[in-house]
Amino acid sequence: MRGAAPALRPGRTVLGISAVLLPFTSDGDVDWAGFASLLERTVAVGITPAVNMDTGYVHLLDGATRCEVLDRTE
Fold first, then answer.
1. Rounded to whole angstroms, how far apart are CA atoms 13 and 74?
2. Rounded CA gap, 35 and 8, in Å?
3. CA–CA dist 17, 27 (Å, integer)
4. Cβ(73)–Cβ(49) under 8 Å?
5. How do the domains of the chain map onto residue ranges?
6. How far apart, in Å, do the first and last CA atoms of the chain sit?
7. Range 5-8 contact pairs with CB under 8 angstroms and sequence separation of 24 or more
C-alpha cells in the first residue's frame, strides 16, 4: 500500500529535465545544427536539457563525440 501523496506546495518552482537525443544526418554524421536547435528549444521553454544519457545508444558514441556534446552544451 502506498503512503499519502505529499502535500501540494503552491508557488513552488518546478524543475523540468528532458533528455535531448543527438541527431544524425542521412549520411551518418552528427547533425550539430539540429542538436543546437533541439537544445535551444528545450531551454527556451524552461526545461533543463540532459545529454549523453542512457537513451539506448550513447554507448555507441566514441569518447570524442561524447566530449563534443558536452562542450556544445556549456
1. 23
2. 36
3. 30
4. yes
5. 16-73
6. 43
7. none
Q: How far apart are CA 72 and CA 48, in angstroms?
A: 14
Residue type, 46: G
Of the chain, the percentage scoring pLDDT greater than 90 comes to 61
pLDDT score recorded for residue 4: 80
Share of the chain above pLDDT 70, in %: 96
Strand partners, 71: none
Cell of 65: 563525440
What pLDDT is attached to residue 48? Answer: 94
Within 10 Å of residue 47's Cβ, how many Cβ atoms? Answer: 15
β strands within the chain, DSSP E:
16-19, 47-50
Give the pLDDT confidence of 50-70 residue by residue, as tens digits: 998 876 677 888 999 999 999
Band (20; pLDDT cuts 50, 70, 90): very high
